[in-house]
Amino acid sequence: MTAIRNIAIIAHVDHGKTTLVDKIMHHCSLFRENEATGELILDNNDLERERGITITSKNVSVVYRDTKINIIDTPGHADFGGEVERVLNMADGVLLLVDAFEGPMPQTRFVLQKAIDLGLKPCVVINKVDKENCTPDEVHEKVFDLMFELGAEEWQLDFPTVYGSAKNNWMNDDWRNETTNIEPLLDMVIEHIPAPKVDLVGSPQMLITSLDFSSFTGRIAIGRLQRGTLKENQQVSLVKRDGSIKKTRIKELHTFEGLGRRKIDEVQAGDICAIVGLEGFEIGDTVADLENPEGLKTIAIDEPTMSMLFTINDSPFFGKDGKFVTSRHIKDRLMKELEKNLALRVEETDSADKFMVFGRGVLHLSVLIETMRREGYELQIGQPQVIIREIDGVKCEPIEELTIDLPEDVSGKAVEMVSLRKGEMLSMESRGNRMHIEFMIPSRGIIGLRNQLLTATAGEAIMAHRFKEYQPLKGGIPERQNGSLVSMEKGKAIPYSIDKLQDRGRFFVAPGEDIYEGQVIGENSRQDDMAVNITKTKKLSNVRSSGADDKAKIVPAIKFSLEEALEYIQKDEYVEVTPAFIRLRKVLLTENERKRSKAI
Fold first, then answer.
1. Which end is more exposed in the chain, N or C (fewer Cβ atoms within 10 Å of the end residue's Cβ)?
2. Which residues take part in binding GTP (predicted)?
3. Which residue blocks in 506-600 are alpha helix, DSSP H?
4. How far is CA 386 from the centre of its chain?
């Protein structure tokens, strides 16, 4: 039995978790000297690399001083909190990463609360001490205060700390003395993180906390074996969430080794393993003894706070780009996603073509939509709506804790914007020439706020938020002020027409783009919607007037990312998503239909 340590790395988004894992893997010689590995090795899917964020948690293992360390890299965004909650069950301790300048942020608080509740031993890493104006000692104090506030026990409050810069590959217990490697961090893990409490004698028990999928072997169950041993070809029972028991068999067992997995004959308690061949399992089920199965406490998942309507693409351009366009395709894909995405819910509506999808936030759902789009799906999405609940006869909505970090001279504008959206300011402190402001704000108020904030602060604002609780409805929140410019005709966008209509508003389509009737092609400078025709060419008659042939000067079209488009649309609009395009459109395409529906 080798010595084992199971640790999860938790932190707020962008505090350097995945970079730290890179350095640990390099230090423990997982790669050949001449191997080109690149950076952020664990962020291995395209979406993670493009956005620079971790979306799904990953397992990797390294060997340091004859001890096997299983490391779980977790996402930092609040929208992927479901991922963090379930994988913490596999760990015996956590490495809490905190930025030496920003200090504990909203998501730090959220994941730390989960770790403390599970009784895990925290070790603190204060990262990025090479930043200017950073205050590592103050941040250490703040982490202590935060743990005390979250109800940590005495042995958890007595946490070890190392300081350093993961990017520059050094750690030390004193931030003023730069070292040459990250050994102090690994020594801290071996010394302070407890070894798994192993019970090799009892019947086997393993809670399934993660899923993987292989096109060769099907679904793979991942979890930490709490008790007993598991062997290849062993007959086992599955204890389901509802307490029912199902008999099945283990075909293969794998443990994590480096970045991959190694097939083995037997797994002993304390190690994290992957099981191939189990049938009909879900996350939260327990793999137990065949004869007398005992279930473990299942995983409780926080409820979704936002919903979107997913429907088939029925625009005039449907089926031009995508391979999967029918409602059956979309339904099958959503059901497949449910298997591994715990914080997601899907409900069918009275129409066979429409599905209500519930998730943690706009980012959570937009990652799913972006993934489907890249797989060749075409679909349309309605405006994001927050989930209103009735608690004790009172209608309540989700409230979030919002922190904004921005230059001091534009802080007044930000406070005004958040207040308009029913936000209440909790605190405001200056850090160097920047302000750090905390608010409580309804989730509805956050939809569309990021774009406005970035515009008002010239891209300087950093915004983070996390779900706090349900509170009684706060009343109306001002929606988008400007109406839409809607196309009257199907055809190509003509530069001449765009040039003549530029004083009406800003355009989202470039000259030469194909458009259809009912497509939202721009933002009106006034409050109401306006139907315009940008497919008209100049009449080439033989009547000429002097100076009439000026060159068309066209302002470049505004192109939305998927999240921006979802936050921008109004109730009577859809985002049409295909592998090649993101278009905005009205739900009712012709102007007559729109007028008729308003009259009703």
1. C
2. 14-19, 127-130
3. 562-568, 591-599
4. 17
By the 8 A CB rule, do 186 and 66 touch? no
Helix locations, 3-67, DSSP H:
17-27, 46-51
Where in 526-572 does DSSP place strands (E)? 530-532
Q: What is the pLDDT of residues 146-168, one digit of tens each?
A: 888 888 889 888 999 999 888 88
What are the C-alpha distances in Å from 529 to residues 325, 504, 570, 592?
A: 29, 11, 11, 13
Q: Is the pLDDT of residue 531 over 80?
A: yes
The type of residue at 589 is L
Confirm whether pTM is higher than 0.85: no
Rounded CA gap, 342 and 338, in Å? 7
Binding residues for GTP: 14-19, 127-130
Q: Distance between terminal CA atoms of the chain?
A: 74
Torsion of CA 564, 570, 571, 573, to 10 degrees: -80
- C-alpha–C-alpha distance, residues 12 and 464, integer Å: 9
Question: How far apart are the C-alpha atoms of 503 and 485, rounded to whole Å?
Answer: 12
Residues belonging to the binding site are 14-19, 127-130
Measured CA to CA, the distance from residue 588 to residue 480 in angstroms comes to 19
Q: Tell me: the pLDDT tens digits for 404-430?
A: 888 888 888 889 989 988 999 999 988
Q: Which residue, among 317, 200, 298, has the nearest Cα to 241 in the 3D structure?
A: 298
Contact indicator for 453, 463 with CB cutoff of 8 Å = yes
Of the candidates 504, 472, 498, 471, the one whose C-alpha atom is nearest the C-alpha of residue 485 is 504
Distance of CA 563 to the CA centre of its chain: 12
Cβ 20 vs Cβ 60: under 8 Å: no
Q: Hunting for tokens 């009106």 — which residue is that?
A: 524
Instruction: Enter the tokens of residue 283.
Output: 């996350």
Are the C-beta atoms of residues 348 and 335 closer than 8 Å to each other? no
- Torsional sign, CA 115, 116, 120, 122: positive
212 burial via Cβ count (<10 Å: 0-12, 13-18, 19+):
middle
Residue with tokens 């029918």: 326
Chain centroid to Cα 301, Å, comes to 15
